[in-house]
Amino acid sequence: MRAFIRETSKVVVIPGVNCDTDQIIPGRFLKSDRAQGYGQYLFHDIRRTPDGELDPAFQLNQPVAEAATILLVEDNFGCGSSREGAVYALVDHGIRAVLAPSFGDIFYNNALKNGLLPVHLAAKTCQALTKHLVQFRQAEVVVDLQSSEVILPGNLGTHGFVIDAFARDCILRALDEIEMTFTFMERIKDFEAKRLASHPWLDR
Amino acid sequence: MKAQAASGRTLLGKIWDEHEILRHPAGPSLLYIDRDMIHEGSFHAFADLKARGLKPRRPKQIFGVADHYVPTLGRTAQDAATPAIARMIETFDENMRWGGVRHFGLSDRRQGIVHVVAPEQGITLPGLTIVCSDSHTSTQGALGSIAFGIGQSENAHVLATQTLWQLRPKVMRVTIDGVLADGVTAKDVMLALIAKIGAAGAGGYAIEFTGSVVKGLSIEGRLTLCNMSIEAAARFGMVAPDETTFSYVRGRHYAPSEQEWDEAVGNWRSLASDADAVFDREVYLDAADIAPMVTWGISPEDAVAISGHVPDPSQFASADRRKTVQKAIDYMGLKPGMALDGLKLDKIFIGSCTNSRIEDLRSAAGMINGRKAVIPAIVVPGSTLVREQAEAEGLAEIFRQAGFEWRESGCSMCAAINGDVIGPGERCASTSNRNFVGRQGPGARTHLVSPAMAAAAAVMGSLTDIRRKEGLV
Ligand code: SF4
User: Fold this and answer.
1) What is chain A's percent helix, strand, coil content, to nearest 5?
2) B257 CB near a chain A CB, below 8 Å?
3) Position B4 in a domain
4) pLDDT in tens, A60-77
5) Which site among B123, B130, B164, B436 would you substitute to test the A interface, given the most A Cβ atoms closer than 10 Å to its Cβ?
6) Which atom belonging to ligand 1 lies closest to the Cα atom of B139?
7) Whole-model pTM?
8) Which A residues in the span 41-80 are in contact with B, Cβ-Cβ below 8 Å?
């Protein structure tokens, strides 16, 4: 994964509460090989009109989205299926941070493992930013993980966000979690030996 | 030694503590994972492992089953809807063989939907930590385990280390007291709960279900409750193990043997939340307030009693909510104020890890009463063993006689990734768990209901209130 430290970008606004991972990537694309990139599937069905054309009203299809790496979304973003393909689609499209009042738990974890920063911002802050962006489409937002702050445009101010220290450290340093866990292998093995001895059916 | 807590511990807390290898100074616990379930979608985790030159560390604690992509009209990969789908099933088999992982392939009698198979085989047991790259892993908490969905990166971590870094969730206790009326099932209880607390209502929480209704439910009903915890945004659903659990588990293949049984049960008995345990949030439901439910919109929270109506967006105070409701109504092809009872349907799907166990099939078959389905209806048993049992009990024959299609086991139309889809604009009553936009196929319209409601809808051709018996016979 790629480290996340600080990102400055225009913002793509995706409206709608409970935007589930089926919207982010429909199930039929999950067979795809990651090497071919998942960006093409991002919001596949909701980006398009019923006859398959890209819908110009959808923000991801507008000029502002071209170089944007930050997404602003609504409550419970990424709920539903645990498919990590949803995160692959965002990452492969070039998205680096998602701002939302709340996220689906599994999506949140999946994002962190792939260097995509999920940022919790108060609902009213998100609403204020959405409003501002209607008027100032080109406005930029800064997401700074080192200071755990988001700097909003206009007079919307700077807002701290909460992220647990472990996840923050992993993503700042693009730490490989598996390798890190291997450093605890002696303790894992001790624990495991006792567990299997008292639960022998786990070892059959 | 753990310090003596001032108040009692919860079911979740006890199992968590028992699996905590260490706690990182920055917060999360390194949890020991007892069992990991694999399905075809887990191929990214295997690719990750291979790229690292690793193998699954504890293959005996990993179980694979093909479910998401499997055909329901045949039992070989060649029966799959497309070559690309067949390839998914083959890749799964290859990965299982490569990893030395026990797996229940397409031709195995133990095959089925992962969350139906795991309890059925005794893989799911009280007191265990169980993961699977599937959000509905919460289902398996019904036996008193910590069971949760993970992504592919997390799964690679489990395969490589048999552990996972996790932050301990808060616990919400959902108490359901009283007596469920005739025709009201665990599915209706969950839809009522989600309608009450919202699709984001339990975000960050594990739900522990309790109360007289839950204690009186069969394991199958409890599995349905815990299954849809994720639809309320809870990654974990749990029920304390009790006599019902123990008699369900006893004798299952991967459960403790008879020699080990008494000691195991002794330990399991101590898992229930202590009387003085403190919960982070409490929610109460009165069984008397719950009717057979149906969803009208595109989120499981859009659920009302079957006697209810499609809401009018103008009646909501917030502009956001008005917009969301309008969008849902438009997608579903409905009008504000329409009655749901009597709404014409195009298809019926009875299946999925929510409602495809033997009791679900009994309940659906029990609604048919010699009548015929007037719209296409398919029944997809949750496992091949459930299918066999339903055939032995004569349920399959009831469905066939009534013109329902009796399929092979798998996820099928729940996620519509095996090629079983609802067409654009078609309206389906489904016993599955998600009515999301396009979930059952692009443009498909889903109404979530219980198995009895689905079967009644098949013979009526429309959503119907199963409490109105005269309309049914
Ligand atoms: S039946 Fe549906 S919800 Fe359950 S595991 Fe399969 S696709 Fe997921």
Assistant:
1) 40, 20, 40
2) yes
3) no
4) 999 999 999 999 999 999
5) B436
6) 4
7) 0.96
8) 45-46, 50, 74-76, 79-80
Q: Is residue B209 domain-shared with residue B354, that is, in the same domain? A: no
A116 touches chain B (CB under 8 A): no
Report the residue of A73, A79, A131 to disrupt the B interface, i.e. the one with the largest count of B CBs within 10 Å: A79
Contact B156, B139 (CB under 8 A): no
Asked if residue B59 belongs to a domain, the reply is: yes
Q: Is B469 on the interface with A (CB under 8 A)?
A: no
Put simply, the answer to whether B436 touches A201 (Cβ < 8 Å) is no
Tell me the ipTM for this assembly.
0.94
> Are B138 and B27 found together in one domain?
yes
Q: Which residue of chain B comes nearest to A108, CA vs CA?
A: B151
Q: For residue B129, give the nearest of B32, B223, B208, B235 by alpha carbon.
A: B32
Measured distance CA(B458)–CA(B401) in Å, rounded: 13
CA–CA distance, A18 with A79 (Å, rounded to integer):
6
- Coil, strand or helix: which one is B177? strand
Which residue minimizes the CA distance to atom 1 of ligand 1?
B352
Residues B152, A46: Cα–Cα separation, whole Å: 25
pLDDT of residue B82: 95
Domain boundary among B258, B289, B320: B289
Q: Which residues line ligand 1 (CB under 6 A)?
A: B 67-68, 113, 115, 134, 136, 352-353, 411, 414-415, 432-433
Mark yes or no for CB contact B28/A166 under 8 Å: yes
CATH classification at residue B393: 3.30.499.10
Classify A48 as helix, strand or coil. strand
Using CA atoms, how far residue A101 sits from A5, A17, B402, in Å, is 21, 10, 49
Residues B189 and B163 in one domain: no
Q: B441 with B418, same domain?
A: yes
Residue B120 CA neighbour count, 13 Å, CB half: 23
pLDDT digits (tens, 9 = 90+) for A117-170: 999 999 999 999 999 999 999 999 999 999 999 999 999 999 999 999 999 999
- Mean pLDDT for chain A overall: 96
List, in order of start, the domains of chain A with CATH numbers. Answer: 6-173 (3.20.19.10), 175-204 (no CATH)
Q: Is the pLDDT of residue B1 over 80?
A: no
B9: left (phi over 0), alpha (psi -120 to 50) or beta: beta
**Are residues B222 and B262 both part of a single domain?**
no
Do B158 and B250 sit in the same domain of this protein? yes
**Alpha carbons B235 and B149: distance in angstroms, whole number:** 7
Domain with B213 in it: 170-241+273-289
pLDDT digits (tens, 9 = 90+) for B27-44: 899 999 999 999 999 999
Q: How many CB atoms lie within 10 A of CB B255?
A: 21
Q: DSSP secondary-structure letter at A199? A: -
Q: Is A119 strand, coil or helix?
A: strand
Go through chain B and tell me how many residues it has.
473
Query: Which of B21, B149, B165 has the CB atom closest to A177's CB atom?
Result: B165
Structurally, how many domains does chain B consist of?
A: 3
In a domain, B229, yes or no: yes
Tell me how far the alpha carbon of residue B103 is from its chain's centroid: 21
Residues B178-190: what's their mean pLDDT?
97
Using CA atoms, how far residue B244 sits from B142, B240, B431, in Å, is: 11, 10, 24
Single out the residue of B232, B440, B441, B167 nearest to residue A80, CA to CA. Answer: B232
Does the pLDDT value for residue B470 go beyond 50? no
Report which protein residue has its CA nearest ligand 1's atom 2.
B414
Model pLDDT for residues B101-140, shown as the tens digit of each residue:
999 999 999 999 999 999 999 999 999 999 999 999 999 9
